[in-house]
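Bench notes, bay 3.
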Amino acid sequence: MNVPFSSLQRLNEISPAPDNTCAQCSSRTRCLPYSLDEQQVGRLDKIIGKRCLVRRNELLIRVGEPFHCLHIIHGGQFKTFQNNAHGKQSILGFHMSGEILGMNAISTGFHEGNAMALEDSEVCKVPFLQLLVLCAELPLLQQHFHRILSEEINRGQRIMRFLGTSADTRFAIFLIDLSTRFAERGYSRNEFKVLMSREEIGNYLGLSMESVSRLMSKFRRKGWITTEGRNVSIRNYAEINAVANEEKLTILGHINPQEH
C-alpha cells in the first residue's frame, strides 16, 4: 500500500535548514502568517524563536507549568492529555502541523494539560506577550489569531457533541476528521498512518480499546477501510461520512432511529 511519508520525513525534505523563516515555511497558509504580506511576515519572524526538536514520547508542555509561549507544530504530531489522581490519562486531542499548542493556558497563565510528541517533531515557539503587541499593530494578524482561537473553541464543542453519539458514529467522525486534516496538509485523503494506539483512540472517543478493535474489524468487513499495521486506507469515504453524519440526520428527522 502506498502511504505518504511521515510529517517529519516531509519536513526534512522541504526545509533542511534550521533557520528557515515563516516566509519559507510550507505551513504558512495554515499558520499565523496567513493573509500577511512579506513585510508583515518579516515582523512576525522577528519574534518567533528557533525551531525546537521534540523527540517521540517527549513532553513539550507539562501540566502546571507557567504559560509564556505558544507552540506552533511545524512538523510531526502531538497528543494532549491530562492525568487523573490515579495517573490515568485522559486524552484531549491529537494535533498536526500548522496547529497551535498551549492556547488553553491563555486564560489562567498555567498549562492545564500535557503535550507529548507522537513522532519526532519540530515546533516554533511564539512568545505570547510579543505576539499580543504585534497583533495590536497588525489587524490582519489579530483577526487570524482570533479565528484560530474560535476554531479551537468549536473543536472542543464538537468533541463534547460526539461523545453522546453511537460508537460507530464516533469512530466514523474520527476517521473523517483525520482524512480531512491530512488532505488539508497535502497528503492523500484516503491513505494515511494513524500514529495513535487503539487504546489512545478509545480513550479520546470514550470507548474501550476492545471497542475500537471491533469497530475497525466491522469497517473492514463492510469494505469501508483496509489496514496494514498503523496504515489505514479508506475504501468507501461516502459510507463512512454517512455514518459520521448519522446522528445529525436523526436530529433533523431524516432518519427514524427505530428503523435504522
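Next record in the batch:
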Amino acid sequence: MAAVFIAGAIGKLDAPAATVRYIASAGLPAPLVGFVGSMLLELSCGLLLIFGYRTRTAAAALAAYCVITALLFHLSFVDHNQAIHFMKNLAMAGGLLAFAGNGAGAFSIDHLLSHSSARSAYARYPAAR
C-alpha cells in the first residue's frame, strides 16, 4: 500500500511542472503549494507505513488524502479512466482505514515501542505481578 504513495511522490518529482499544471487545471488555489504538500504527504506517510511508525496517524492522513483527491480530481464519471481512479482512491481509503483502526502489526516500530513501554511499566510496578 505504501509503495503506491512513494511512487506517486517520485512521479511528482519527475514531472513537477505537469503536476502543478494538473492541480491548477482543477481550479485549486496555490497549485505549487498543493504540489509540495501532496508530495511531502505521500512520501512521509508512505515511509511511515513501511516502517510501521505512527501507522494509525499516517494511514488516517492518507485515507483522507485519497478521499479528497478523488473528490477534487476524479469526479468526471463520463471519462471511464477518471471513474476508475475515483473508485481506486475510495478503495485505497478503505484499506488505509483498516490500518488506522488496527495498527501495523507485529513487525512494526509501533509494536516494538508499545511492548517496550509495557515492559518498563511492568518493571516499575512489581506489586502488579
